[in-house]
Specification:
The protein has 14 helices and 16 strands. By secondary structure, the protein is of the alpha/beta class. It has a 7-stranded mixed beta sheet, sandwiched between helices. A 4-stranded mixed beta sheet has the order 1-2-3-15. The protein has a 3-stranded antiparallel beta sheet with strand order 13-14-16, with helices on one face. 50% of the residues are buried.
Length: 427
């Protein structure tokens, strides 16, 4: 498979854009090879500038639960654009979307719309710190909560109370306010909170982790987070940027029956346009400006096009819930791929909740980033390259989730497995 134009575009892009891409994983550094430049997408298929077609399991990293260019969403965006793309003033549709979110998410009584997941998490951290009048926050290893300074933090050495910057440019003094614990480690959470709980503003967690590859919460893990935060008057923040509307209309909080104090949404909630949200308890959200003293703002917050896309998407999901069918198709895909790998004696493990999944090239359970790190990332790179050559587009790194959409019909899944069989034969 030749990527003549993509290769040319990449070198042209590198002369104007750092690394040639506007978000780092797009550059394929983890798997090698030329990242295809995309020309268009329709349903489950994306076409690159060289005319190659791929069955897409990246789904733009999560938003596209309806597939590419769903006609209802496209119409909603076009209709909105004709009436003006931005006003910097309130519009009725923003209320519709807020009401929809409030109805779906058990933990959301009030919600503010922002433009990216990063912004939602940054606002949640500020709110939690203001509400509790404490500075320390907790996150888990391998979690991604966007790129605000407080979250670009890795576990410190030794007792690991204080995190350290995971990127140059993050002030050490700020990173030290973030503590990093291993995901799914109930004992570590209990020990940390019994010692430091009174200084913790909030625990941030992806209830189903999606950024170390998919990690499924152990029974009792999320409940423990709820219990220890309540006991120390800290807040529990669910980062449902991926899981919100992905594992069900009520997100992971509905699925597992745990009500967080704050919830961050992104990806699906914007229907493929830049929109995200921070929501939660009425008393806490009441601290946001102009109702309260905590400052937060955005020129394009609640943008009419993004709100139209989000609303159209959520209404479709509500009126015709696809979750049972997504479960069936995703299960078929996972077991089909697993059978093919087993037949080739390739050690692997698939973690899956509904339509989000990761194939780890490893033996044994993968329940934390520490487990995931033991994977054979070379094997993943080979697998990824072989699938790309056979017209299947997976996320270009081992530690990511791939997503099935309603456009992935049983015919598309069958086609995927046929192609994967050929690809896996050359592994
Ligand atoms: C994508 C993601 C974010 C960041 O969202 P952006 O819109 O990319 O800023 C935050 N948290 C999780 C869990 C994500 O997957």
């Amino acid at each position: 498979m030749k990527h003549t134009l993509s290769r040319r575009f990449l070198s042209r892009a590198q002369r104007s854009i750092p690394g040639g891409v506007n978000s780092p994983v797009r550059a394929f550094r983890a798997v090698g090879g030329t990242p295809p430049f995309v020309a268009q997408g329709k349903g489950a298929i994306v076409t690159d500038v060289d005319g190659h077609r791929y069955i897409d399991y990246l789904g733009s990293w999560g938003p596209l639960i309806l597939g590419h260019a769903h006609p209802v969403v496209v119409r909603a965006v076009c209709d909105a654009a004709r009436r003006g793309t931005t006003f910097g003033a309130a519009t009725e549709r923003e209320i519709d979307l807020a009401e929809m979110i409030r109805t779906c998410m058990p933990g959301i009584e009030r919600v503010r719309l922002v433009s990216s997941g990063t912004e939602a998490l940054m606002t949640a951290a500020r709110l939690a710190r203001a509400w509790t009048r404490r500075d320390r926050i907790i996150k888990f290893t391998g979690a991604y909560h966007g790129h605000a300074d407080s979250f670009l933090v890795a576990a410190g050495s030794g007792a690991a109370t204080f995190g350290h910057p995971s990127s140059p440019g993050v002030p050490r003094a700020l990173a030290e306010l973030t503590s990093v614990l291993p995901y799914n480690d109930i004992g570590a959470v209990r020990r940390f909170m019994s010692k430091h709980g009174r200084s913790v503003a909030a625990i941030f967690v992806e209830p189903i982790a999606a950024n170390a590859g998919v990690l499924i919460p152990r029974p009792g893990f999320l409940q423990t987070l709820r219990d220890v935060t309540r006991r120390s008057n800290s807040l529990l923040v669910f980062d449902e940027v991926v899981t919100g509307f992905r594992v069900g209309m009520g997100g992971a909080q509905k699925l597992y029956g745990i009500k967080p104090d704050l919830t961050c949404l992104g990806k699906i909630v914007g229907g493929g346009l830049p929109l995200a949200a921070v929501g939660g308890r009425r008393d806490i959200l009441g601290m946001l400006s102009p109702q309260g003293p905590v400052y937060q703002a955005g020129t394009l917050s609640g943008n009419p096009l993004a709100v139209a896309a989000g609303l159209a998407t959520l209404r479709l999901l509500r009126d015709k819930p696809p979750y049972a069918i997504l479960e069936k198709l995703s299960a078929r895909l996972a077991s089909g791929l697993s059978d093919l790998l087993t037949a080739r004696c390739v050690s692997h493990r698939i973690n899956r909740v509904g339509s989000m999944m990761t194939i780890f090239f490893a033996e044994g359970l993968i329940e934390s980033y520490e487990d995931a790190k033991l994977c054979d990332t070379q094997q993943f790179a080979k697998f990824h390259g072989a699938l790309i050559c056979h017209g299947i587009y997976l996320p270009p790194a081992q530690f990511e989730a791939f997503f099935v959409s309603v456009a992935h019909t049983s015919g598309v899944i069958r086609d995927t497995l046929r192609r994967a069989k050929k690809a896996i034969n050359i592994l």
